[in-house]
Structures are given as structure tokens and as C-alpha cells.
Description:
- The chain is of the alpha+beta class.
- 32% of the residues lie in helices and 17% in strands.
- The protein has a single domain, classed as CATH 3.40.33.10.
- The protein contains 6 helices and 7 strands; from the N terminus they run E-H-E-H-H-E-H-E-E-H-E-H-E.
- The strands form 2 sheets. Strands 1, 2, 3, 6 and 7 form a 5-stranded mixed beta sheet that branches.
- Helix 1 packs parallel to helix 4.
- The relative contact order is 0.25.
Amino acid sequence: MPCAKTSYTTSVLTEYSTKTVPYVVAPTYASTNIVEELDFQKKALKAHNVLRVKHGAQKLRWSAELQKQAQVFLETEFVCNGTLQHTNAFKAGEIGESVALGYASIEQAVQAFSHGQKYYSFANSTCVDKRAHQFTQLVWNNTEYVGCAYINCGNYYNNFFICQYTQKGNIPNEYPENVFQVLN
């Protein structure tokens, strides 16, 4: 099945996505401390680029605009209830987006995005399963910018991470020139 057939997915890479769990009423948002924010940006960018370089993709640059868009979503629309949720901009196909729930750090969340590699067929340039989408977005060569944000959903859920990308990935017929195997 081609990867682009399923453009919206909410059930990926988290053990919490299928559990019935209590609703968390009051999430706490990422720190507004500028030093912590810069550290988060640095870690997010490094985690992405380490994996991208392994696949021969160009390095990403940080987008404050995408980060702000992700943060606004977390503060105004997102509900900490154990489900993976995407933004309307992603659903409309305007941006690429990856989400993860239940991880302590951005590095762990980005690593979780890469787990979808096992659902991608490099030989056929197709997704075997929709869970490949976060991996293919992560390593999509034409993507230039990333911006991430997170929210703490309490001890049960831990953190919800959202990373947004431009140019978006998972474009039909463009997989062969954008998703590469690990370089030797």
C-alpha cells in the first residue's frame, strides 16, 4: 500500500493509545524559561538530525513559527486523555507532523518516530503499514524545517510531544527521492 493513502493517523508508537485510562484534568505546559526552551530546541534538532544524517537526508533547521503553532495547539485544543491527537493544519495537509505520548524526553520521542522504519519497504518505496508515516516524515529529504513542543500530562501519561515539519513528507510518488536506507 502506498504511504500517502492514509494521510491522517492517530494510533502510532505508544503503549497508551489503546488503554482506557483516567482523564487528566490539568496538564502542565513546557517551561517558559528561555534557557530551558533553548535547550529543548537544541535537543530536538540534534535528535532529528542524527537520525536524518544516517539516512542521507539533509539536516533540518529550527522553525520558531512551527514551534509556536505546535505550542498554541497544546494550549488551546489538546486534551490529555491518553490519545494521540493531530492539528487541523496536519489534517488539512498543510504541514508534516509527528506525535508521541508517554516519553520523558524529546530524544526518546524522536527515537520513537524512527521505529516506523520496520513498516517501510525500501525495495518498493512503500509503507507496509501506516505506522511508517512518522518514520518517513522524520527522514524525508526535502523537509527543511522542524518545530516541536510538548505538554506534561501527569505521571500516568508523562509527556505528549508534537513536532511539525515543512516541507511536509509522505507525498505520493516522491518516496524514492526522499526516503533513503541507512548509509554504510
